[in-house]
Amino acid sequence: AKNSGRGVFRFFTTDYLKAATERRELEEDLHLAIERDEFQLYYQPVVDARTDTVVGAEALIRWIHPVKGFVSPAQFIPLAEESNLICRLGEFALRRGCSDAMQWPKSLRVAINVSPVQFAEEDFVKIVQRVLRETRLPPERLELEITESVFVSDDEKVQQIFQGLKNLGVRLALDDFGTGYSSLGYLRRSPFDKLKIDQSFIRGATEFASRNRPIVEATATMAQALSMVTTAEGVETFDQLDLVRAQRVNYVQGYIYSKPISAEEFLSRASDNWQI
Ligand code: C2E
Ligand code: CA
Ligand code: CA
Ligand code: CA
User: Fold this and answer.
1) What is the overall mean pLDDT for the chain?
2) Distance between Cα 260 and ligand 3 center (Å)
3) Which of 41, 44, 60 for a ligand 1 pocket mutation test, highest count of atoms within 8 Å of Cβ?
4) Whose CA is nearest to atom 44 of ligand 1?
5) Is the pLDDT of residue 43 over 90?
6) What is the average per-residue pLDDT within 58-83?
7) Distances, alpha carbon 127 to alpha carbons 13, 38, 159, in Å
8) Angle, alpha carbons 210-216-219 (nearest 5°)
9) What atom of ligand 1 comes closest to residue 42's alpha carbon?
10) Which of 69, 136, 148, 235 could cross-link with 180 by S-S, CB 3.0 to 4.6 Å?
């Protein structure tokens, strides 16, 4: 029994060390990955809930590791955020997304995820301005998706950046709404054009007596009253689609329409009035 106790402990430590080593390796690889051009942008169509028309796409980054293969952004984005590599990665996504969108029909927008860490960066607004100038993408075709966690830092500075971005003419979306430090006060002060209702609220919303349903409804109503539009994320079933339509959510993203697809595939399928 004594031995087994130590065995369990040793097992735990080696496991722990292994995880830490893997993490360090992944972090080293991440630094090389930008130079080696191992990142790709995939695009998930954003669909008008009333007309089934594609109005744009969200860019979702993919890392194709030479040995490990596909690595999920949920795994490497947090790593990149720790090492500040996220700023280079974020600028890559911004530039690539804008230049890809230049190939699409002019009616389609591109949405790019922005990490809160990029907000702390010197002159984030200037970076966006430069990318728009270089790619010639009209600013109104660019939407930046920002999570509530930006608000944990200096509020005045964040508000200034928002205003700078609005002055450029880009659109702002509040991502994963309802999951973070969401404060209605922030919402009142910040010039968001769109609220993205997190998929955790959509999931289960159609079940009997679900508490998610009134939350979806209240979010849609509030957004409307504040002159914002809404997107439902992670819609997978027809029941969920019916529900968000009934709540007058404006846009839908989810596997029911399409998973994220490669830039090539998106380009070849994109056309004016693309019904999906
Ligand atoms: P997110 O911004 O909330 O993106 C939505 C995630 O939900 C994506 O996961 C997407 O593939 C997935 N999804 C879409 N529709 C459905 C559905 O119907 N069902 C389910 N189960 N999932 C669905 P993905 O691509 O793995 O990205 C995960 C997260 O990584 C993103 O969450 C975002 O926070 C982050 N991320 C991805 N690309 C970037 C980027 O370029 N920059 C930054 N800063 N973060 C990124
Ligand atoms: Ca997003
Ligand atoms: Ca989201
Ligand atoms: Ca998310």
Assistant:
1) 91
2) 13
3) 60
4) 115
5) yes
6) 93
7) 44, 22, 17
8) 145
9) 25
10) 148
Under the banding of pLDDT at 50, 70 and 90, the label for residue 208 is confident
CA of 113 to the centre of ligand 2 (A): 5
User: Is residue 240 within 6 Å of ligand 1 at its C-beta?
Assistant: no
Burial class (CB in 10 A: 0-12, 13-18, 19+), 167: exposed
What pLDDT does 154 receive? 77
Q: Is the CB of 44 under 6 A from ligand 1?
A: yes
Q: Per mean pLDDT, which of 47-56, 116-125, 197-206 is the most reliable?
A: 47-56
Using a CB cutoff of 5 Å, list residues around ligand 2, an ion: 113, 145, 175
Pick the closest to residue 217 from 251, 244, 187 (CA basis): 244
Q: Which two tokens stand for residue 120?
A: 């702390």
